[in-house]
Specification:
Structural class: mainly alpha
Protein name: Membrane-associated protein
Pfam family, one: VTT_dom
Order of helices and strands: HHHHHHHHH
Strand content: under 5%
Largest sheet: none
Radius of gyration: 18 Å
Keywords: Cell membrane, Membrane, Transmembrane, Transmembrane helix
Family: Belongs to the DedA family.
Subcellular location: Cell membrane
Number of domains: 1
């Protein structure tokens, strides 16, 4: 584990870019992303880039990750539009269960446009919202606008908070090191937990009693 910390802490900006963009795309596009720690990854990326004094890279990564997050949600939207959501619910699932899918659908139904914006800040809804919006045939232009606004508020906030927060901590080297270790540990632990949880959920049978969320009535409302 210590070797992993050292590797990530000394990773160059290019490696940080590859890791961040790959994970953000998967989290925003596919159901597996439901279990990935996107928030901590973005923050940790900013912290690591600060150790290289890569301010320009942090800003450019914010822009690139923002675009990838929007594109990923578009992929999730069309997956939901093509497949629906019924097959996601698992019997005995802790996260992927009928109740959680219904709650996510009701959230989208009540808030419509703003639900997609706010979903960026709610981990498991962040991944489900595009699929539900697609299954419910939310207007694509409104969905794209909403998910773009959400991405603008989400991605740069976390990356730049990590970068400038770590910059302030450079005045206290021991605290900066602790922040880096905690950020990376949270990311590694969250990813490991996510992979394990995904395998556990997918091993359970599909809940045949779950209804498709195409019944969501007002996803296009502003």
């Amino acid at each position: 584990m210590a070797h992993a910390f050292a590797s990530l802490e000394t990773a160059g900006p290019v490696a940080v870019w590859v890791i961040v963009l790959s994970f953000i795309f998967v989290e925003c596009a596919f159901i597996f992303g439901l279990f990935l720690p996107g928030d901590s990854l973005l923050f940790a990326a900013g912290v690591v880039l600060a150790t290289h004094n890569s301010e320009l890279s942090a800003w450019l990564l914010s822009l690139a990750a923002l675009v990838v997050a929007v594109v990923g949600n578009q992929v999730g939207y069309f997956i939901g539009r093509g497949t629906g959501t019924r097959v996601l619910a698992r019997k005995g699932g802790k996260v992927l269960n009928k109740q959680n899918l219904q709650r996510a659908g009701e959230f989208l139904d009540r808030r419509g446009f703003w639900a997609v914006v706010l979903a960026r800040w709610i981990p498991w809804i962040r991944t489900l919202a595009p699929m539900i919006a697609g299954a419910a045939r939310m207007d694509l232009r409104k969905f794209t606008l909403a998910t773009t606004i959400g991405a603008i508020a989400w991605v740069p906030t976390l990356v730049l908070a990590g970068y400038y927060g770590a910059g302030i901590l450079q005045q206290l080297p021991w605290l900066e090191t602790a922040a880096i270790v905690v950020s990376i540990a949270f990311f590694l632990g969250g990813t490991g937990w996510g992979i394990w949880r995904y395998r556990q959920e997918m091993a359970k049978p599909i809940d045949e009693t779950s209804e498709d969320l195409e019944h969501v009535s007002h996803p296009q409302a502003g």
